[in-house]
Every structure is written in structure tokens, then in C-alpha cells.
Design goal:
It is a single chain. The chain is mainly α. It folds into three domains: about 160 residues, no CATH class; about 170 residues, Arp2/3 complex 21 kDa subunit ARPC3 (Orthogonal Bundle), CATH 1.10.1760; about 220 residues, Hypothetical protein af1432 (Orthogonal Bundle). The chain is built from 29 helices and ten strands. Strand 5 and strand 6 form a beta hairpin. The two termini are about 20 Å apart.
Length: about 750
């Protein structure tokens, strides 16, 4: 399993390093299709928009349709101008030098038409002048029905234009061939006038034509504002700058419909990434293998030598895999900055599940290295993750309640935000503004904190704040999956007012008091060797709950009454006593005790021999008829340091009640004797207890006994009893084959 988990972690990390590249290779980017992953850069990347987008920009500009606005006011103004001309010139009945000169100045000023005095005289003297002018007005009105533009500048390469109505936001596409320039409209006007009034003297007709042409104007106006807006939009869509991307920045977010620019950007990035692939791939493989390998060596060679428990290989590897999956989901399915990654949930979960600061710190460093490969190898990213993970390890220890996670989350968020601020701020710009101090320009200093920097700082803080709640969300799943319990869960069972403890007190008060004393001794010994004292205390509270089934069969609950074991056959007595382990396991499971607590119930006697009843049987029956296994607990032996400490504390507490005139020397002899017997019996062969630990446990238990035993009265039932020598033993009703019970197969 350990090898399998290592292979999964390595494979998942390497796959995640190139998940974007694999996606782009298998599904090349196409316009108008959504991106199924958030594509991020894995290295510093510059996108030269001038080079990559120039062709697209030129194509877009060539497809741009100039916008003209139809102007009824221009048509009306042209007609009115010519009507004014008609009214003014028709008002003169006969030539007059003064009035002719005045008209010449007026026409020159109003219509930019220069008439000679002779031309004016000829026009005024024409007998059918009004009909001539009205006919020309009609021709001009017909000419103005065309789509007239001032000129064709800017339309040479265009096929169509857009014409907007003045009272509508809609537009109509018209071919450029349907337009006429103002010069052509004037020429057309002249041709039609001459065709219709060919009989009129040119000395009269020419000046009138000149006047009508002067009043003619375009009825389509070039919309400068709208055209500039559309051209600006094209320039924004296809800019000319060179854009630089740092490792981990988003190129295209998840589910965005790709535009032409996005496709060009991804294609350019793909080319750059392919060039780097041959250099980066061996490096990433080497780093991943080395980091995972060193982590396994650390757990097996270094941590195992100083740990109270065996190295948590599977647990740590599963958490690394889980964290990697969460980070992959964050990077691939959200467009958020990488600083918002809830990476610190990794060390927090290890701390919550009582695997120690050393494992949490090592896992955080390994996880930071692997996640850094996912984002893109970058020293600043590695430090950002390592600082946040280290802060989580240092701050989150000794939490007892879930609500206390708020403070570590806040502090981790602050460390993350501060790290982003220090790494991302343009310090050169800052110092250029604050030196010299006498002329600090605070307003300009504030502009250094742009939106991107503020956004990254905010998400760095959010990433730290979210890590704690996310760890609490995943915690129950890990507790169920690994059969363990966090301090948060265990703390609920320290309450002595829980139903099970009340029931123990009412049914077996002597056992209840014994459990309290064992809890005191076990916690003292656990503190001496830095074991899990919370688990030890709870295990001591519940270790003998199986005695509630038949409390009077256990000596601490008899209180000067008769001892039923005096008349029971030794094997029957041993079987009854042994069954309290099985009953305790069943009661604990039905009450929902955490598995780690139920394990202490099952292991607190290990496979010990019940010497008292075995010796009675050995003196009563021939040795050939006695099987030692009938007098041994089913086990298993203690699998953890906590189970071993609980075994010793339980035995020491029970034995201490029989000591007459207790003192420190007697306590030490008793504790050492109990410990040596269990060592000789191999009870500690499956847990990690060193000789130094055993010495500390002895000292701690002796100190605790000395502190708790003052002058005390001897209980009546503590008097010595002669070993029964009867042979007419009674056999109890409970004589089933207990070895078939699942409790005995543990």
C-alpha cells in the first residue's frame, strides 16, 4: 500500500504539472468554444501582441464598415438655401446698380457664389425667371434623394458602409457603389438642368446653375465618434503591447468562450511551452522523485527514531494526495489567483489528528515543493507556501475546540497577505517616492498599490482564512476513513456527565473510582514521555466499562460483600473476568466511542496471564489438564504507546490498593515489578517504548502514587485471603465457547 500511494502521489504531481499542456494538445483551442480548464502559465511568458495579432488586426480593420449618419437637416438646409436664393433674386423687378451690387455681396457671403454685374443683370432681366428657378429647385430635390457623401476618402478599400437613421439606433448596410460624391452630385445636377432648360440663354443659365450647385450639400455625414469608438474597440481587442505573465497567472479562465485573441494567446503559449518541455520535464521528474523519496526516508529513518508512534506513512501520503487533488481543482476550475490556494489545510489536518508538529512541518515542506511544481517552479511561490504552512504548524497546536480554529486561520491569512505584499510590491518605486523624506509624495505613493497587487494580497489572506474551515470540513471524513479521532472529537468524551459515565457510576461505583484513579496515573505517565494525554485520559475513563454487565463479579464493587469467585471454578472465574474486555468493546461501539478509544479498551490487558486464577488452578488440577491460553486475555497486545501506558497505569492502580503502609520505596518496587513482568511476557513487543521511556514512566507513576496516597484507612476487603483449596468448584451459567467471539480474534 505504501508503494502504491507513493506511485499515485508522483504520477498525480507530474500529470498536474502538464495538465494544461495535455489539454491544449488533445483539444486545440478554437474560437467560440468554451475552455474546459483554466489555463495558467507554468513559467514567465511574454505575449508579443504586435507580432501575434498584426494580421488579425489588419483583417479586423479591413472588415470595419464606416458608419455614416443620414441627415435630413442637410437636405432641408440645401432646399431652403436655394429657396432663399429664389426669393431674393425674384424680389428685384428691374436692374438697379445699387441693388445688383448688394445682391452680389450677399450671394458671395451666403452662397460663396461670385456673380458679375452683367450676370446679375441678365438673370434679373430674364422674363421667365421664376419658372426657371422652380424647375431647378425640383431637380435639386430629386438629386438630394441620392445618398451623397462629401468624398470617397477612406472608402477606397471598403465594400459596404453602415447608415444610421437619426431617430433610431439601428443601422442599414449599403454598398459603397450606391453612394455618390458631392462633386458628382453637382455634376449630375448641372447635366439635368441643361437637359431640361437647353433653350435658356447660357448667360442666364450658367449663373443659376452655379448658385444651385453652391447650395447642394451631402446628406450622409461621417459619424466620427461612432467610428472612433469602433476602431478603438478593434485596437483594444488586438493591442500592440507586449504582455508579460508570471508563473501561475491565468491565461484563459474556466468555461470562457474563446475569442480570436484567446486562441492566438494559447497558441503562442503552446509554442513557448513546447520549447521548454524538453528542459522542464526531466527537472520536474527529478524533483518529484527526490522530494517524495526524501520524505519517505525522513519518516522511516529520522522520525521513527524519535517518535512515540510508528511513522504515519499511509496517512501522510494520503493527505499529500488529497491536498494535491484540492489544489489541482482550485487551479484548473477557478480563475482565482494562486495565492488563494487553501494549502495550509495540509499541516492543519496533521496537527488536528495528533500526528505531531514534526510530521506536519515535513509534510508542509514536501507539499509546498510539489504544489510549487504545479503552479510553476518559482522560488517566491515556494517561500509563500512554506511560510504559510510553517505558521499553521506553529499556531494550530493544542487546539481543544473547533471554534478556536478562527485565530490560526486569521494569523495564517495575515502571514500569506504579508508575504504577497513583500514579494509583489514594487519596492524601487516605493523608495523613489519616499527618498528624500522631506518631500514624500503620499498621493503618488498610493498609486503603487494597483488593483492587481491589492487583489493578490486579498486572496492571499482569503486562502489562509479558508484553509482552517476546509480542514474542519475534511476532518470527519478522515476520522471515519482512518478510524482515528481529532482532539475536537475526543474532547467531547472528557465530560463525565455523559450518559455512559453516569451509568458506570451508578452501576459500578468502585470501577468508576478506579477509572478516575487510572486516568490520573495514565495522564501523569503520558506527560512524562509526551504521549497523547487527552487520549490516555479518555481511554482510562472508559477502559473498564465492560464491568457494568456484572459489576458484583469485580472486587472493587463488592464493598465487604462475598466474593463470588471464592466458590467458582478458576477457569470459570477467568472466563468471566476476561469477558469484560469483550463487553467493553461492544458497549463502546454501541455508544459511538471513537475507534482509537475502543482500541484502548480492547488492548489495555493485552494477552496477559491471569496469574491469580492460573495459580489456583495449577495447585488444584494436574498441570497436564491446564491450558495457559484459557487464563490469558485475547489481546491484541498494546499497539500504541498510549495502550501500553494505560496497561501499566491500570495494573499499578489496582495493585497499589493492597500495599500496607505505603511509601515511595514500596511504590517503586511495585511499579518496577509490574513493568518487568509485562516486559518479560512480551506485552510491549508491538509498540514503540524505549528503555528511557520506561524509566520515565516508572518515575512518573511513583510520583503520582506518592502524591495521591496520604494517610489512609485500609479497606476491609484489602485484607489477605487464603488461597481457596476447595475442589468442589461451582460452574457458572456462562460457559459458552468464548474463543469464537470476535472480541477474542482481535
Amino acid at each position: 500500500m505504501r508503494l502504491f500511494l507513493n506511485i499515485i502521489l508522483i504520477s498525480l504531481t507530474l500529470l498536474a504539472c502538464y495538465i494544461g499542456d495535455i489539454y491544449l494538445y488533445l483539444w486545440p483551442p478554437r474560437t467560440n468554444l468554451p475552455a474546459n480548464l483554466t489555463i495558467r502559465t507554468h513559467h514567465s511568458f511574454s505575449f508579443d501582441q504586435q507580432t501575434e495579432l498584426d494580421l488579425k488586426r489588419q483583417t479586423a480593420l479591413s472588415r470595419h464598415k464606416p458608419v455614416f449618419r443620414h441627415s435630413p437637416q442637410a437636405v432641408e438646409a440645401a432646399i431652403n438655401d436655394f429657396k432663399v436664393f429664389i426669393q431674393v433674386i425674384s424680389a428685384i423687378q428691374k436692374p438697379d446698380a445699387g441693388k445688383i451690387e448688394e445682391l452680389r455681396r450677399q450671394f458671395r457671403q451666403d452662397f460663396s457664389v461670385r456673380f458679375s454685374a452683367a450676370d446679375m443683370s441678365q438673370i434679373i432681366s430674364y422674363r421667365d425667371l421664376r419658372n426657371l428657378l422652380q424647375g431647378i429647385l425640383t431637380i435639386e430635390e430629386s438629386i438630394l434623394q441620392n445618398k451623397i457623401v462629401a468624398n470617397f476618402d477612406g472608402l477606397k478599400d471598403k465594400q459596404d458602409i453602415l447608415i444610421k437613421s437619426p431617430n433610431s439606433n439601428g443601422s442599414v448596410t449599403q454598398p459603397v457603389s450606391a453612394l455618390i460624391a458631392l462633386d458628382k452630385a453637382r455634376s449630375l445636377l448641372e447635366d439635368k438642368i441643361r437637359q431640361l432648360f437647353w433653350q435658356v440663354d447660357n448667360r442666364v443659365l450658367n449663373p443659376v446653375i452655379q448658385a444651385s450647385q453652391a447650395t447642394l450639400r451631402p446628406n450622409l455625414e461621417y459619424d466620427q465618434a461612432e467610428n472612433q469608438r469602433r476602431l478603438d474597440r478593434i485596437n483594444r481587442e488586438f493591442p500592440t503591447q507586449t504582455v508579460s505573465y508570471n508563473p501561475g497567472e491565468v491565461l484563459v479562465p474556466f468555461r470562457k468562450v474563446l475569442s480570436e485573441k484567446d486562441v492566438l494567446l494559447l497558441t503562442s503559449y503552446q509554442r513557448h511551452q513546447l520549447v521548454r518541455l524538453y528542459q522542464n520535464a526531466p527537472r520536474n521528474v527529478y524533483i518529484t522523485l527526490l522530494v517524495v523519496g526524501f520524505f519517505n526516508l525522513f519518516l522511516s529513518k529520522i522520525l521513527a527514531n524519535g517518535s512515540r508512534h510508528g511513522p504515519p506513512f499511509r496517512f501522510a501520503l494520503v493527505l499529500l494526495i488529497t491536498t494535491t487533488v484540492v489544489i489541482i481543482g482550485y487551479l484548473a476550475l477557478t480563475p482565482l489567483p494562486m495565492y488563494g490556494m487553501p494549502f495550509c489545510m495540509l499541516p492543519l489536518l496533521i496537527i488536528f489528528l495528533n500526528h505531531g508538529k514534526l510530521v506536519a512541518a515535513a509534510s508542509a515542506l514536501v507539499g509546498a515543493t510539489l504544489v510549487c511544481l504545479l503552479v510553476g517552479p518559482n522560488f517566491e511561490t515556494l517561500l509563500f507556501l512554506a511560510f504559510g504552512g510553517s505558521a499553521a504548524v506553529l499556531i494550530a497546536s493544542n487546539l481543544q475546540k473547533r471554534r478556536q480554529i478562527i485565530l490560526p486561520s486569521l494569523l495564517v491569512g495575515f502571514i500569506n497577505a504579508l508575504t504577497v505584499f513583500i514579494f509583489a510590491l514594487n519596492w524601487q518605486a516605493v523608495f523613489s517616492e519616499i527618498i528624500p523624506l522631506q518631500s514624500v509624495r503620499w498621493v503618488r505613493l498610493m498609486h503603487i498599490f494597483d488593483d492587481a497587487l491589492t487583489w493578490n494580497i486579498a486572496w492571499g489572506a482569503i486562502g489562509g482564512l479558508v484553509a482552517g474551515p476546509l480542514a474542519l470540513l475534511l476532518l470527519p471524513l478522515l476520522e471515519i476513513g482512518w478510524g482515528t479521532a481529532s482532539n475536537f472529537k475526543l474532547n467531547r468524551y472528557t465530560d463525565l456527565s455523559r450518559v455512559l459515565m453516569k451509568e458506570l457510576l451508578s452501576k459500578a461505583p468502585g470501577t468508576y473510582q478506579h477509572s478516575m484513579n487510572v486516568a490520573y496515573l495514565a495522564q501523569s505517565a503520558g506527560e512524562a514521555i509526551r504521549a497523547d494525554t487527552l487520549l490516555l485520559r479518555i481511554g482510562a475513563y472508559y477502559h473498564d466499562i465492560g464491568k457494568m454487565m456484572n459489576p458484583n463479579l469485580f472486587i472493587e464493587n463488592q464493598f465487604e460483600g462475598e466474593n463470588p469467585h471464592d466458590v467458582l471454578e478458576p477457569r470459570e472465574s477467568a472466563r468471566i473476568i476476561i469477558k469484560h474486555v469483550r463487553h467493553g468493546m461492544r458497549i463502546g461501539q454501541e455508544a459511538g466511542l471513537p475507534k482509537v478509544v475502543v482500541d484502548l479498551i480492547v488492548q489495555h490487558h493485552g494477552t496477559q496471564l491471569m496469574e491469580y486464577f492460573y495459580n489456583i488452578a495449577a495447585k488444584t488440577y494436574p498441570k497436564s489438564t491446564i491450558q495457559e491460553e484459557e487464563f490469558r486475555y485475547p489481546g491484541p497486545k498494546p499497539q500504541s504507546v498510549e495502550a501500553a501506558v494505560l496497561m501499566l497505569a491500570d495494573a499499578v492502580e489496582a495493585a497499589s490498593r493492597s500495599i500496607q503502609d505505603p511509601n515511595r520505596n514500596k511504590f517503586r518496587k511495585m511499579v518496577r515489578l509490574i513493568m518487568f513482568k509485562r516486559i518479560a511476557d512480551g506485552q510491549f513487543s508491538e509498540c514503540d517504548l524505549s528503555s528511557r521511556d520506561l524509566t520515565k514512566i516508572v518515575d512518573a507513576l511513583v510520583d503520582a502514587l506518592e502524591a495521591s496516597f496520604h494517610s489512609r484507612v485500609r479497606y476491609p476487603w484489602q485484607g489477605k485471603k487464603a488461597v481457596p483449596k476447595k475442589t468442589d468448584w461451582q460452574i457458572g451459567a456462562d460457559t459458552g465457547n468464548d474463543r469464537e467471539d470476535r472480541a477474542f480474534r482481535l
